[in-house]
Specification:
four-stranded mixed β-sheet; mainly alpha; single chain
């Protein structure tokens, strides 16, 4: 089940309501407009057309579903540490209109994730692996903030939403079936390589400006690599959605070498 189910459907229904009574040529024009809004000029990256308010609503619903599936730790020293570090980064990020929250999920998985609108979750297993390295934890949390500020998931949701709307504007048949298949593929997408690089760069910048040593990200990556090798390539859950490659570590090291902290303040 998608984390974004109900509010996403409401956004789609709101859009469809505006096109329901329009003639065919108007509906076709709406489809063209939607494609231009989503993809822009040829060669441009897919962009999000979700408003900040819609992102926040999606995040609230996503958080509700996550917190039904996991026990949320709110009172332990770990929970306080994650909140403290997360809050310390916010003054140095480049998007101030998001109501971020930082919570610990009581699970041994080595994982962390964020959803549009601000909820950031760190698994206890990841905290155990990081140990007392606050610099590394700040970089991980900064990376997850970076996915939200970069609107990486919001762009994927926009792609899926646009696909669903276009299906509604398209006569039933082979084309609609193809679009439906594309929607299913988009629903299962993980972050792209460029999105990971962007989130790394943002996380390094936020950590640096907040007074943490961004070298912590490299130490975290190296721990993940060692753990993956020790477990025979299976590795922790975080690696499945945020694959660590030599190129990714090299890019992080280049940013550090040149003090190329271009996001935040």
């Amino acid at each position: 089940m998608s984390l974004f189910g109900d509010p996403w459907n409401r956004v789609r229904e709101d859009y469809l309501q505006t096109t329901k009574a329009t003639p065919h040529n108007s509906r076709a024009a709406a489809a063209v407009f939607l494609i231009v809004m989503l993809f822009g000029a040829p060669g441009c990256r897919t962009r999000s057309f979700l408003s900040t308010k819609q992102e926040v609503n999606l995040g609230r619903e996503g958080a509700r579903q996550v917190e039904q599936q996991y026990r949320v730790d709110t009172n332990s020293p770990d929970a306080e540490r994650v909140r403290r570090i997360g809050q310390s980064l916010l003054a140095h990020t480049d998007r101030r209109d998001i109501p971020y929250t930082f919570k610990v999920l009581d699970s041994k998985e080595i994982n962390a994730f964020s959803v549009p609108g601000g909820p950031v979750y760190i698994y206890r297993g990841l905290l155990d692996m990081i140990g007392d390295d606050d610099d590394a934890l700040a970089c991980v949390i900064g990376h997850e903030i970076g996915h939200v500020n970069g609107r990486h998931a919001a762009r994927q949701i926009s792609s899926q939403l646009a696909t669903n709307v276009l299906i509604s504007l398209t006569p039933i048949g082979a084309t609609a079936q193809n679009l439906a298949g594309l929607g299913a593929e988009l629903a299962g997408l993980k972050y792209s390589r460029d999105d990971e690089y962007d989130a790394d760069r943002r996380g390094l910048s936020y950590a640096h400006f907040a007074g943490y040593n961004p070298q912590g990200m490299v130490r975290f990556f190296e721990k993940l690599e060692r753990l993956e090798k020790r477990e025979g390539g299976g590795g922790p859950e975080w690696l499945r959605n945020h694959p660590v490659t030599g190129a990714r570590i090299s890019k992080a090291e280049t940013i550090l070498e040149h003090n190329d902290f271009r996001y935040g303040q």
